[in-house]
Design a protein that fits this description.
The protein has helices spanning 3-29, 33-38, 53-58, 94-108, 133-146; strands spanning 69-70, 75-88, 114-119, 122-130, 155-164. The protein is an alpha+beta fold. The longest helix is centred in the N-terminal third of the chain and has 27 residues, at 3-29. The protein starts with a helix and ends with a strand. 15% of the residues are buried. The protein contains five helices and five strands; from the N terminus they run αααββαββαβ.
Length: 166
């Protein structure tokens, strides 16, 4: 009676290890998991998979609602973090200040993505596309050193980011 849980645990571990190694093999070859499983390898046995082509096409593709979605084909959209360096609601000056700060940041960091947005009544300038809070925090510290006047306005915000595919 006491052996059944340990045997089940052992079988579950073996199954997980086999499926992970099959997925890694598929990713390394750049083929689908089905092709990797059906490939002929000496000493590892033979696998035959019977299923429709529709299912083969679906495996490995993202569905709407997944955490990371395809953008224009050049990037993935997902939840992440940005460093906000400006937010203003003065109708007369905020727009000009936002674009001025964007130019100042791009002059010092030309490869850094800088976004100016308007969500009534606020103009905002946000910097970067970071997957973790820590990455955005390090950029905030670096920007605060480069632009001490912006320091009190800077903070980290959670937002949909764009991860480039290259």
């Amino acid at each position: 009676m006491k052996r059944y849980p340990s045997i089940l645990l052992l079988l579950a571990g073996l199954f997980a290890a086999t499926s992970l190694s099959a997925q890694n093999a598929a990713n390394e070859q750049g083929t689908s998991i089905f092709n990797a499983l059906e490939s002929d390898r000496p000493g590892q046995g033979e696998v035959t998979i019977h299923q429709s082509d529709a299912i083969r096409k679906l495996v490995g593709t993202r569905r709407a609602g997944d955490p990371a979605q395809a953008g224009d084909g050049n990037y993935l959209k997902m939840q992440g973090f940005r460093t906000q360096v400006f937010s203003g609601n003065n109708q007369r000056t905020s727009k000009d200040l936002a674009f001025k700060r964007k130019e100042e940041i791009l002059a010092l960091y030309p490869d850094l993505p800088v976004y100016v947005t308007y969500v009534a009544p606020f103009w905002r300038v946000r910097v970067g596309d970071y997957r973790s809070h820590e990455e955005a925090y390090h950029m905030k510290i670096e920007l605060a050193k480069a632009f001490p006047a912006f320091g009190k306005e800077m903070y980290i915000v959670r937002e949909e980011i764009q991860i480039p595919l290259f």
